[in-house]
Design brief:
Domain DinB-like: 10-145
Radius of gyration: 16 Å
Pfam families: DinB_2
Mean pLDDT: 96
Strand content: under 5%
CATH class: Mainly Alpha
InterPro entries: DinB-like (IPR024775), DinB/YfiT-like (IPR034660)
Protein name: DinB family protein
Number of strands: 0
Organism: Paenibacillus terreus
CATH topology: Four Helix Bundle (Hemerythrin (Met), subunit A)
């Protein structure tokens, strides 16, 4: 598997997400549109949190983010259930922008190595497959973010 291709897909999806995020007025970041469970703030935190949990976690490496991120942005969470203040938009944006480089620095050149957690939800067998699994997850959220931003701009 080509490192260049795997990380290129991540960069491309991140750029699409960033374009949506930049087009949304600040006042709409924490609005949960009708028919949705989550806000754009949650979407951003979820993408960042799950990338590290999927790739680092299943690869068997320490997850760089604090565990509290999973309580705010993990699967099944939503802003209506938050207790306390989640990480700020600015902090999440910084992580979102820096994360691909950190992932490259950690995993480039070892994408063919086996994962540590063989029994994983994506049935990934190599670190490269984890990168693709995370990319697929982010692509689905890019579509959700796109739809949410369109709705929020009309409100």
């Amino acid at each position: 598997m080509s490192d260049v291709y795997a990380f290129h897909l991540m960069d491309r999806t991140r750029q699409k997400i960033l374009k949506h995020l930049e087009s949304l007025p600040e006042a709409k970041r924490n609005v949960v549109p009708a028919g949705f469970n989550n806000s754009i703030h949650w979407q951003l935190g979820h993408v960042v949190t799950l990338a590290d949990r999927i790739i680092y976690g299943i690869a068997g490496k320490p997850i760089p983010l604090p565990e509290s991120y999973a309580t705010f942005f993990g699967p099944g969470t939503k802003p209506a259930d938050w207790i306390g203040e989640p990480p700020s938009w600015e902090e999440l944006m910084q992580l979102f922008n820096e994360q691909p480089s950190r992932l490259r620095d950690t995993f480039a050149g070892i994408l063919d190595e086996p994962v540590a957690k063989k029994d994983n939800f994506g049935q990934a067998e190599t670190i490269g497959e984890l990168i693709h699994l995370s990319n697929g997850h982010e692509s689905s959220h890019e579509g959700m973010i796109n739809a949410m931003v369109k709705i929020l701009k009309q409100q």
